[in-house]
Amino acid sequence: MPTYAILGVTGSTGAELLKYLLPKPEVRLQVYARSASKLQALHPAITSAQNVTAYTGDLAQPGLLTDCLRNADAVFMVVATNYNEAGCSIAQQQAHGVVTALEVLRKEQPPGEFKCPTAVFLSSASLHERMNRDTPRLMLYILKQAVCYMYEDVEKANAYLNDFPWIPLIVANPPALIHDLPRGFRLSEDESTGLLAYADLARAMVQMVEEGGGKKWVGKNVGILPTGGNEIQKNVGPLIKYLSTGLVAAYFPSISNFARRRGWW
């Protein structure tokens, strides 16, 4: 029975991971969220689920992530923010918290006996030139500007994780994400374009830790290609709003802060 830890289970990716894995009785889940009330509101089913243990609190809370990661075979690192805000560091906080927790667990075991869980870190295809060779340059530029602070945070977190070669690391690099039904996907080291459903991203991340005995994708940047063709519901309205607010934050931060305080986005 594999044990998977999901960090950020109230976000879009974490919620889809839980939705996909919860019905599988052969999988043990250890999930983390910052807010206990939000976790209960979004996922009331976990209260009675026999295969789920929930951990809530601040990422920096001593021992919290250590307990969440204990005995895990893989950890899905999908803690994220939706705001393109200067100084954003949530991905770095997550990375530092995970490394600290794993170091504690490593020291609990006799030398050479610690089995480190595979860490699956959520990044973006936009950060890899080879995965975007078919993406129009203007579109790619707009995307990078709209999430510039978040991308900077993700890149620093990724670099930090790579400083610890004893941690088996897989970096998941999806293209633009939308809320839709699962339509199908395939994994690639060279491509990651189109529109991908969060539901397919969740399934892709699970495949990354299970395929090839869990070793096939370790140490690699993995792209995810949607294969649903025209079936995918191209509901780009939320995506356009997301990019627009991100651009305002990048170029007019005072206006963005004012709008957020007013609850406009």
Describe the structure.
With about 260 residues, the chain is α/β, with parallel strands linked by helices. The protein contains nine helices and ten strands. It has helices at about 10-20, 35-40, 65-70, 90-110, 135-145, 150-160, 200-210, 235-250, 255-260; strands spanning about 5, 30-35, 50-55, 75, 120, 170-175, 175-180, 185-190, 195, 220-225. The strands form two sheets. Strands 3-2-1-4-5-6-10-8 form an eight-stranded mixed beta sheet, sandwiched between helices. Helix 8 (about 235-250) packs across helix 9. It is globular and about 50 Å long. The model has no long low-confidence stretch (mean pLDDT about 90).
Question: Largest sheet, order of strands side by side?
Answer: 3-2-1-4-5-6-10-8
Helix content: 25-40%
**Poorly predicted spans:** none
Number of discrete helical segments: 9
Q: Biggest sheet, in brief? A: 8 strands, mixed
Q: Strand content of the residues, in percent?
A: 15-25%
Number of strands: 10
Radius of gyration equals 18 Å
